[in-house]
Amino acid sequence: MGKLVKVVAALLVLSPLLKAQETKIYREGASWTREINGSLPAARNLRVRVDIGSVRIEGGSQQQGITYSIRNRAHTTSEETARNQFDLYKVSASIRGDTAWVVGECHGTDSHKFSGEFVIKVPRDLDSAKVETEGGNVVATGFSGRLDTESGGGSIRLDDLGGAVNAETGGGSIDVGNVGGDVKLQTGGGSIRVASAKGKISAETGGGSVVIVSGLQGAVLETGGGNIQVQRCDGNVKATTGGGSIDLGDLGGPVEIETGGGSIRLASAKGVVRAETGSGSIELGGVPSAHAETGSGGIIAKFTSANGVRSDSMLQTAVGDITVYLSPSMNISIQASIDVSNGHTIRSDFPEIRVVTEGGEWGPKSVSATGALNGGGPVLKIRTSSGNIVLRRADH
Fold this sequence. Notes:
By secondary structure, this protein is mainly β. The chain has a domain of 131 residues. 7% of the residues lie in helices and 57% in strands. It contains two helices and 36 strands. The protein has an 18-stranded mixed sheet. Strand 6 and strand 7 form a beta hairpin.
């Protein structure tokens, strides 16, 4: 009698867990669908590992536990074949310590005739989530903790996350909305976009574009050949592309910019700027000091005393014009030169800067200019092998 009581008591304990998951199989068009709906008790962390299928994590609700809805599709007209496919794709949900696990494991299913979608709803105060999928897309939104995710090749979309983010995909795009911590993103070739990050940003793609709308603690951005665009960012910024253009807005610290052949544009920076391109043009606006070099393109630079500590600067191009805008009140020393003038010259709005032409009547001529504004200061060296140099008075 005592053993019977214990068995009944054990069944009563297990019955809520047995009822927590429901499975049904039905035909949907030319395919068969297995739908699994269930729930798990509250947990601080979530781990999802999926061999076939996309994953969506949805937070933001006031629920205490975790609910999940899983839809697997067998793309076959035969119910028997579909059920065999479902049997080969094992789905499990469990609690281990303070972590909830949702797993989809493939044991021989034909991935070309099988697909899946995992939708998991979690409390907003979830501490962390880790999502791994062999090739499906990943979406995660609406919780306060950290996210680590990896996809073999699918796209990744993240938004409204309070903690740090670490996301990697073999080739898909990565789209990030608002994140409250550091952001580390990597894709084999897709594009990357970040709307807003309160922490540091690290973004790397094998060939896609990189777009940052707002960052608060600096960014390191790299693409094998795509364009890079940053609208606003505080802290240090480093942007590198194998051949695309780089377009940067208002930056709150030092900047390093490098492209194999594209153009460079910077609206303003509160720190030293280093810019280099193999053949494109360079345009720098509102910088305290700069080292800029291009193999064959023009340079336009505006220097200001307001944005950070000033130091010596250098502007150089092999072929192209260089135009510099200087504030009338700026204390600066100028050293400018054209290696082979061939009709090119140096023009200046400042009488303090003296222009000298050297060379014979029939031989090659060189042009140089030196001078000090407002008693002199940090040295600005300007050099072009073949092009004009223009020194203009800035409006402000």
